[in-house]
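Researcher: I'm preparing a figure for a lab meeting and need a structural model of a single chain. I don't have an experimental structure, so a prediction will have to do for now. The sequence is pasted below. Please return the structure as tokens so I can convert it later.
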Amino acid sequence: MPALRTRDLIPPDKFHALFSKQKATLYTDHTLPHHHHHHHTSSSRTSNTPRPLAPTLSWAPLGNLVATASERTVRVWNPERPVAKNSTELRGHTGYVDGVAFHPRREAELASGGSDGVVRLWDVRAKRATGEIKVGGAGGVGQQGGVYRIAWSPDGKEMVVGRTEKKKGSKDREDTLISISLATLSEIGQYPQPAETPSFAFSNSGRELFTTTSLGTINVLDYPSFETLHSIRGHVAACHSVAISPTGANLATGGSDSLVLIWDTHDWMPKYSITDFVGTVRNISYSFDGSYVVGGSDEGSGLTVTHVESGDAVTTVATVGEKGVGCVGWHPNRYALAYTGDPSGLRIVGGIASS
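Model: Understood. Here is the structure written out token by token.
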């Protein structure tokens, strides 16, 4: 089955027939042990177990690179070449990496952040770090802390970083949103959040920031003032993920109530809910044209593609295991879908890899 071409649009009645025939390619840095290691020595067992990917991924703006993270390492793949030696490894973080985000306009500029409390900027082509911003909140070994999410403003001039810290003598975490100027690599402002804020995303204009909270609320903040414009409620449990449609007509949110809600951005009313998830919906992605949406949850198997306009499920992508999907991300200009959560590595459905 040939790959679906760039900017080809597929109507919902034909989506299953076309997308279900697309092959899923595995991208893994994991090499099988040599045949003479067949007795179970500890070394062969460690080399035989790939390091799990963190639940984060990011496509470069043209879709010709995709970034993932595993432990302290960031790895960038060319989706056309699924062989590990063609991927780029970026090392420098001293803690586990929790978030990667490509610059929205520059082809090979990537930001990453994690438990060391540092946001690093990388030139992927030159394979080197180009700058860093220490935002603090670093967690100790095995503790949550540091940078947990990065969102670029649409023009790429600023970013918002989520920093989390353990409250002293309590199980709760304290989340702070920090705006950063790319030109000066410095903080513009710090905005402590009244509740845990697992996810946030810019509007398409960059004038608003959508935040989700452990209380189940979704806040629409003015940017750059961070003042609350609207607060909307729909989830009956913590809200963990948010995405804005490329058309701007609707917003998708996912929660630990195993629901994705689709909101109308004109009146902030929920249009419908998508119910076929198990566990917490950790992230959501819209296709480039805003026609289809997918959520990644941390339990169960299979990725359901929903047609946004009708709310109908059009196809389900089979996944490996029952551990859910760590992170999902549609390609920025064609129907190809990347996801983490497969124990073997990154998978991309949509036949991009040259065979």
